[in-house]
Amino acid sequence: MSEPALNPARLYLRHAFPEYLTAGRRWQGIPSIERTEGGRLYVTWYSGGDTEEPGNVVVLEMSDDGKSFTDGFLLVKHDDPEVRCFDPTVWIDPRGRFWLFWTQSKGYFDGRDGVWAARCDDPDAKEPLFTSPRRIADGLMLNKPTVTKNGDWLFPVALWTDEYIKPGEEHPELRDQTLANLYRSRDGGESFTRVGGVDMPRRAFDEHMTVELSDGRLWMLVRTKDGIGQAFSSDGGATWENAGFSGHTGPNSRFFIRRLRSGRILLVNHVNPTYLTDPKDWNVRNNLMAMLSEDDGKTWTGGLMLDTRTGISYPDGKEDETGRIWLTYDYDRYGAREILMATFTEEDILRGRLTSPGSELARVINRATGEKPEGRN
């Protein structure tokens, strides 16, 4: 049993572990971004060791000017070397509180995982303070929650199917939950209840996100081997229908979708990715593009190409109070080892080029410079 993974990791503020600072990290990726009311940026990702493996740690850095970031602001690290902390995401709730979520597992995948959270009630403070970590669900949550019109907080928590990846342990008590699930909180994050889930054809790591449509239905989008799958719910996520291909292709990778203040929906995805000749090489990630929909995802307009390079992946974004979009993603996790940021507006997307003051693409906000893992370019 993976009992060590049920114990909380430690949060180290202003840490000085050399192997987890920029100059010591050997690889890094899978970022998430948030921006506070005061304009402070928080970006998180994970690293530790040589790859995605036991002993992984979560890194959280911040910036008050949007240009220079801390190095060693906060580290999430478990005492047990067999437990990894991975797939973090950050979110600011409707009350202005900052949440850092991550997953813990014994080994790469112990069949149960566990979503953990720590909260900062004043993220603009000179020295932000965090609550003790607490476990909120079985599974993994890589993407931000969605707040519905009726005030529900919906959390996209997945349990990977063993048809895609074999777990290190058997957890038969969770067999009916190996889905792209939704958890709900109606008390401001004090308690969490599993609502339902989707068994999407050809699921792959799920990494799902949910949008509330104009008619009140929920629209779930899920990572699959063929691109992005979709399903719809008319009862708040308890049951789902029409699970299948959404029409959005992709290299079996994470995407980002969010309803904006304007009412439009933003989708950031790999568009017409270039595949290699070997059909096994499905994981060629390039041509990351932002696009908009004005009709609940039926059609898409505009198209701002954010980065065409092979090796870019895992976008996550935040819209600020002015309507500016802040996006982060990674590039070449074992080579260049870069965490990047783009800032742009809806007008930029509609025009297909940067036209707004302050917009910028592909700015490196962190580049790990530790010794590269053996056998990696």
What can you tell me about this protein's structure?
The protein is mainly beta and 377 residues long. 2% of the residues lie in helices and 42% in strands. A five-stranded antiparallel β-sheet has the order 1-5-4-3-2, with no helix packed on it. It has a four-stranded antiparallel β-sheet with strand order 6-7-8-9, with no helix packed on it. A four-stranded antiparallel β-sheet has the order 10-11-12-13, with no helix packed on it. 44% of the residues are buried.
Keyword list:
377 residues, mainly beta, Neuraminidase, 4-stranded antiparallel beta sheet, 2% helix
Write the layout of secondary structure elements.
Blueprint: E1 10-13, E2 29-35, E3 41-47, E4 57-63, E5 74-77, E6 83-92, E7 98-106, E8 115-120, E9 134-137, E10 146-147, E11 153-158, E12 180-185, E13 193-198, E14 203-212, E15 218-224, E16 227-233, E17 241-245, E18 256-259, E19 265-270, E20 288-293, E21 301-307, E22 312-319, E23 325-331, E24 338-344, H1 346-351, E25 360-367
Antiparallel strand pairs: 1-5, 2-3, 3-4, 4-5, 6-7, 7-8, 8-9, 10-11, 11-12, 12-13, 14-15, 15-16, 16-17, 18-19, 19-20, 20-21, 22-23, 23-24, 24-25
